[in-house]
Amino acid sequence: MSAPDSARRACKAVIPAAGLGTRFLPATKAMPKEMLPVVDRPAIEYVVREARAAGLDDILVITGRNKRALEDHFDRHPALEATLERKGDTRRIEMIRESDLVGDMHYVRQGQALGLGHAVACARRHVGQEPFAVLLGDDIIHSEDALLERMLEVQARYGGSVVALMEVPEEAVSSYGVAAVEAVEGEEDVVRVTGLVEKPARQDAPSTLAVIGRYVLDPAVFDVLDRTPPGRGGEIQLTDALQTLAAGDGEGYGVHAVVFRGRRYDTGDKLGYLQAVVEFATAHPELGADMTAWLKEFSADL
């Protein structure tokens, strides 16, 4: 499917962040999982920065109960700034101001935890009739691997929706939505999605290309979500709606994918979170050298 002559480029981002974070209990009993620190910044700040770097300044966060800390983090803190100013701590003032207003931030609550598809549907009024990006709040993409920018280019070229795919081991396919794909002439990293299966058994998976937490969606997805019944786990699955878009034809239909081969960190998983902390710490301008030296010493004793 080719893009219409009036192809529109997405300008808004949606970050679903209403999950309970049960995999990180008891740490997330009172703290949103998206606020768990990756060195000295909460995980969600890396995601917001990624949206900003891709030119998406209008950001809607889908929140839930006990998520007030997300709003506070992206707001000004005059009392803290005044305290730091009195101490002459200009470096830390600059750091917190980087976090204050990293975008035109909006928030809406997902009243019930009915799945990712339902969370995306909560963005309908804010998004309107324009394409938009969805970034999962616990998936971090390395800032040097411009996945989202590439996805925006592909959506503007071909229309419809675009997902991000990543090769995973066969034994891991049951943890993901998995895509059936076909090649796109002249493209190395772009494929057309012909089918999607949510968390298939290993023997039923159409490939080892798994959907990861980045999407650029046509607003046609909203009408499809309205008609999508609860699927796996009794939730409204975004994968099911994308399957309908991939299989259908018409305005806003069709799904392409960018096959991502860069660095991705699943901070919603304990091991993935710890790996992100270690990798970001070794690259940190202040901590990197000492952290790397300590890791070498520590690993030598294992």
Automatic annotation (TrEMBL):
Keyword Transferase listed? The answer is yes
- In short, the EC number is 2.7.7.9
Identify the domain of life: Bacteria
Nucleotidyl transferase domain location, by residue?
A: 12-277
SUPFAM superfamilies, sorted: Nucleotide-diphospho-sugar transferases
* Any one GO molecular-function label of the UniProt entry: UTP:glucose-1-phosphate uridylyltransferase activity
Q: One matching Pfam family, short form?
A: NTP_transferase
- Name the coiled-coil region(s): none
Query: What catalytic reaction does the record list?
Result: alpha-D-glucose 1-phosphate + UTP + H(+) = UDP-alpha-D-glucose + diphosphate
Kindly state which keywords UniProt assigns to this record, in alphabetical order: Nucleotidyltransferase, Transferase
State the NCBIfam families in the record.
galU (TIGR01099)
Which family does the entry's similarity section mention?
A: Belongs to the UDPGP type 2 family.
What is this protein's record name? Answer: UTP--glucose-1-phosphate uridylyltransferase
